[in-house]
Every structure is written in C-alpha cells, then in structure tokens.
Amino acid sequence: MKRHVLLNRVLGVGLLAVTVLVPVGQAAQAQGKKSKDLVPPIIFQAAGPIAASIQSTVDAFRAALGDPNNGNNPPPLDRSGRREINWDGGNPPVDITTAPVTPFNFFLNTRGGQFTTPGAGLSQGPASGGPQGGLEVLFNNPTYGATFSAFSPLRLFTPVDSNITEALFFVPGANPNLQPGANPAQPATVRGFGAVFTDVDKPNGIGRGGRRGNTRGASTLMEYFDVDGRLIFSSFVPPSPGDASLSFFGIVFDEPLIARVRITTGDTAPGPDDDEKRDIVMMDDFIYGEPQPLF
Q1: Which of these, 103, 180, 101, lies nearest to 138 by C-alpha position?
Q2: Dihedral pair phi/psi, residue 74, rounded to 5°
Q3: SS3 assignment, position 110
Q4: Confidence check: pLDDT of 1 > 60
Q5: pLDDT value for 120
Q6: 182 phi and psi, to 5 degrees?
Q7: How far apart are CA 164 and CA 281, in angstroms?
Q8: What confidence tens digit (pLDDT) does each residue in 239-268 have?
C-alpha cells in the first residue's frame, strides 16, 4: 500500500468526521509552485443519515468561501463571495427531470460552471416523482426513490452511462449571448469547491491490499487540478451506512488554484441496484468560490 501524508488543516463537523489521507504525490505542483511550497487547503467533510448531519459543515464551508452568495449576478464584483448550484430551479422547486446532455451549460454563463461527462450526458431530477417519474424512471430502477435523498429538495444531479463528472470554471456573465456548446470568453479558477452526495456507502480509504474498486474500497472520489492539469489534491468522500444518507466534501485554498474538478460518484454508473457489490451515488448542491479570471 502506498504511504500517506496527513494534511494538517482538517475540519470535520457533523455526526461523522473522518481524517483525510492523501497519497504521496497527489499534493502536486500548482501554478508554478512546488508541492513543498503549496499551502494545504482547509478540508470540510461530514456524513450522516439526514440533512442535519451535514448542515453545520456545509454552513462552515460557505463561511470559509465568504459572503455573499452571488447567485446569477454578473461582474463586476469585488471577487468575493461564492456561487451555489442546487439543481432545483427556484421557488417553488422544479421537479422536472432533464434529458442527459454534455456539456451541461445551464449554469455556464450565469454562475461560471460548466459540467461534462464521458457518458451520455448529465441530468437533473428528483429521486422519484415529478412529471417524468424522476431518476427511478430515467434509470428504469424503481428502488431509486428510496435509495437517494435530496439535501435541498427536490432535484439531484447525475451522469448517465458513466460515474464521472468534470467541472470547469469561467467568469460569469462574460458571454451574455451564449449559444449552446459555446464557452464564455474568460476561463477562471476558484479558491474552493465542495459537493453534497447521497448514499455513499463504501468505507473511506483504500481497499484491501491497497486496491481501489473492490467491494471493501471507497467508492466516491474528488480530484482537484490546477490550470496546467496537475493534480493538487484528492480525497475520498466520507460514507454513511444505510439508504438515502448524505455526505459532504469540500476544500478551500488560500488562493484561487482550482481550474478543474473531477468527481467519481460510486463504483459504477447509475442503473443497477445499490447493493453490497455496487455503490450507486448521486450528487446534490455544488458550492464554489467566486470564479477569478486567468487574465
């Protein structure tokens, strides 16, 4: 098994708080800085059976990124605050299940987030219900209504035909006449990025024999990259046993170093039953620092 280094700024709040171990070499260089000069991020993580289990950790993460929540407000801003995506479409929340699409550009110009997957696309939808019957109909699996729960009702976010989601960041409002598939003019980086997950079952850490992907290994992974594509941080997401549990993982750097985030949800793409052999995981709220222009 690989040796591990313990990052020294860990904040765990909620019913479950676990220590993050990062394999040597994964705290790589960032924007010309050597790994020994890179200030480790503050880590926020929690997991438990209900929303209250992670609420205080999510609130602490928001506070670390700073106020306000900039919503859909375009620049100029003073580069403070954060952006949030809860997939629910306003008040009252929207319960429509969207067809899978990649790149997922619905929040690209308004909030500076673009999301892609190597699968068929990314979809929003409630675990069950709504006009299209929710994710249990999208994936033709009636067990999903009880397997997953929303942190902020009603909808969840998921890749289809894959368990990989990638996030890229851009300056919000840089292209007000955004066309489908187009990018804003200004790529950006963020100080921090965190996400809520539902039904992370498998234990946090490396599986038996140091191998990932077996039934005893962790299933859900967050990987953070700099503008040069170098991995600057990675960690598994803390689990909580039982159906419809909730987990949160996020990090905050002192500087806007994060250009891309790769999220591995579960150990297989949604569709099969969530059972002892397969850990199927969905996502809810994304929270990240105000995107900062690269130039």
Answers
A1: 101
A2: -85, 165
A3: helix
A4: no
A5: 98
A6: -85, 160
A7: 11
A8: 998 999 999 999 999 999 999 999 999 999
Q: How far apart are CA 109 and CA 114, in angstroms?
A: 9
Q: Is residue 73 part of a domain?
A: no
- Asked if the structure places residue 32 within a domain, the reply is yes
Contact 134, 153 (CB under 8 A): no
Q: In sequence order, what are the residues at sequence separation of 6 or more whose Cβ sits closer than 8 angstroms to the Cβ of residue 181?
A: 103, 105
16: tokens are 């479950």
- The pLDDT of residue 176: 56
Residue of higher predicted confidence among 6 and 221: 221
**Amino acid identity at 136:** E
In tens, the pLDDT along 36-87 reads: 578 999 999 999 999 999 999 999 999 999 999 999 988 766 778 999 999 9
Which two structure tokens, joined as six digits, stand for 119?
Answer: 């699968």
CB 205 within 8 A of CB 21: yes
**CA 286, CA 295: separation in Å to the nearest integer?**
25
Structural domain for 190, as ranges = 4-47+56-66+82-88+98-293
Is residue 181 in a domain? yes
- Rounded to a whole number of angstroms, the distance between the first and last alpha carbons of the chain is 41
CA distance 106 to 196: 19
pLDDT recorded at residue 295: 75
Structure confidence at residue 22 (pLDDT): 38
Beta bridge partners of 252: 42, 192
Number of separate domains in the chain:
1
**Phi then psi for 186, rounded to 5 degrees?**
-120, 105
pLDDT bin (cut points 50, 70, 90) of residue 16 is very low
Contact 211, 144 (CB under 8 A): no
Give the whole-angstrom CA distance, residue 214 versus residue 209. 10
Residue 72 lies in a domain: no
